[in-house]
Design a protein that fits this description.
Blueprint (H helix, E strand, L loop, with lengths): L1 E6 L9 H5 L4 E4 L2 E4 L3 E2 L5 H7 L5 E6 L2
Antiparallel strand pairs: 1-4, 1-5, 2-3
Bound molecules: iron/sulfur cluster.
The site of iron/sulfur cluster has 16 residues, from helix 1 and strand 3.
Length: 65
Amino acid sequence: MKYLIKHDREACIGCGACVAVCPDNWKMNGDKPDPVKTEVDEIGCTKQAAEQCPVDAIKIEEKNE
Ligand code: SF4
């Protein structure tokens, strides 16, 4: 199973919670973060990042292969 990680930069308020909880895959890029990888085999800490995001700007989708 692969997962797609989607970040809604419009909705994002740049609070940095995702970077704090998941520095492995979230890095600040200007005033808002971007995911380092948008397609992964293991969702890892991005799951926690999505749960912590106050505006629900991080979406995780299963990729059908
Ligand atoms: S936790 Fe959500 S709102 Fe905060 S910086 Fe990350 S994506 Fe943006």
